[in-house]
Amino acid sequence: MKKLRVGVVGCGSIAKHRHLPEYHANPNVELVALCDVVLERAEQAVETYGGKAYESYQEMIDREELDVVSVCTPNYLHAPVSIYASKAGANVLCEKPMATSKEEADEMIAAAKASGKKLMIAHNQRFVPSHQKARQLIESGEIGKIYSFRTAFGHPGPEGWSVDGKDSWFFRKEEAFIGAMGDLGVHKSDLMRYLLGEEIVEVGAFIETSSKENTDVDDTAVCALRTESGIVGTLAASWSYKREDNSTIIYAEKAVLRLEDDPTHSLVVQYATGETVRYELGKIQSNDAGGQTGSHVIDHFVASILENKEVLVDGNEGKNSLMVILGALESNETKKIVNIQNELN
């Protein structure tokens, strides 16, 4: 079987820790082109993974006959690179947040549809075993009606993980567009949509820059969310947590689900009967030392292409998760609850 020819745009931390090693480990792909505006980074990656180094993504996509393009750039380039790659006939895997506006997201979806190729957004939390098990419990009706939830994603900030440290693009609004809400919050808006199986339609938010200096993006946010059936909950995203928190708690009629809230048991189900069931399902991916386990995103994307199956997080899914974050920004600015239902796909 012919291997898929893969090009990666952006050779920073997310490519270094996730995309490049996971493509390299997949027997059905060949890394043929790696691109970064800092050419030296691409050249260093080529030394490890092979292929050809490029400084311009347009040149890379034009010269190489690529089956797949992974977009691992600063946020403001997600849409331009994805659209260019789709128009060139490549399947696109784009990092989150999908885009910086509804209009950009719509353009990405349209470009992929016109090309007849796939567009997937790399929301890896859907692939976490505890999250998948919780979704099964919810879908089966075992825990009854869902009443509320609280979910959080926080850590000390990207300076400890980004290749540029404190000088990272994450802290520059013209490149990042949004701070902790785009880096971490959008993971959780996507996760709650996935777990609950319905859309979030109303958003209220307080968004602050309180812990980081010399930045014009948010680092701490708390949102109130309501789904279409009336489930209410909170979402917190922060770069001010001294220890990582990636937990979710769901309160339902027959049980409480605690996801990634216990150091040993990734899912704890506390039933109303008094019974408690603890699952050891493996650790969630983390930026902490030893936390870079396989995300399953690349393997799923490659398999979807080869088997011509739907991807788990297509452009529409990515857009609807983004709209929650854009709604939070609007709520913070207007000091009003924002209804996003009419913006959803």
TrEMBL record:
GFO/IDH/MocA-like oxidoreductase domain sequence ranges: 131-257
Top-level taxon: Bacteria
Start and end residues of each Gfo/Idh/MocA-like oxidoreductase N-terminal domain: 4-123
Transmembrane spans: none
PANTHER family: BILIVERDIN REDUCTASE A
Protein name: Dehydrogenase
UniProt source species: Sutcliffiella horikoshii
Lineage of the species this protein comes from: Bacteria, Bacillati, Bacillota, Bacilli, Bacillales
